């Protein structure tokens, strides 16, 4: 019998695959270049963390999981879409402090 962590890892992996395939197929449809810019954002900000979650659930805490989580965190923080979101958040929070 499969344990719940393995099932949850398979669900997270399946969700990551569905998001990645949907983003790739959807990128073929938009009319403008600017509309196409939204789909790589889904790959960078959704698929990576879901894959990291799947590895965490499957392998459990350890060095392998830490390396995968660090890599995914660095990729997320340096992705253009995520960086723009972080910058916008800093602007909004900076305006509140004034």
TrEMBL record:
Task: Give the record's keywords alphabetically.
Answer: Membrane, Transmembrane, Transmembrane helix
The UniProt transmembrane annotation reads 6-25, 37-57, 63-87
Note the superkingdom of the native organism: Bacteria
- This protein's name: Monovalent cation/H(+) antiporter subunit G
């Amino acid at each position: 019998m499969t344990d719940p962590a393995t099932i949850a890892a398979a669900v997270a992996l399946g969700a990551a695959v569905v998001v990645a395939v949907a983003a790739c197929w959807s990128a073929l449809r938009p009319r403008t270049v600017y509309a196409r810019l939204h789909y790589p954002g889904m790959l960078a900000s959704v698929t990576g963390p879901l894959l990291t979650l799947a590895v965490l659930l499957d392998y459990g805490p350890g060095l392998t999981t830490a390396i995968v989580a660090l890599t995914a965190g660095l990729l997320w923080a340096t992705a253009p879409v995520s960086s723009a979101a972080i910058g916008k958040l800093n602007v909004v929070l900076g305006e509140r402090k004034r």
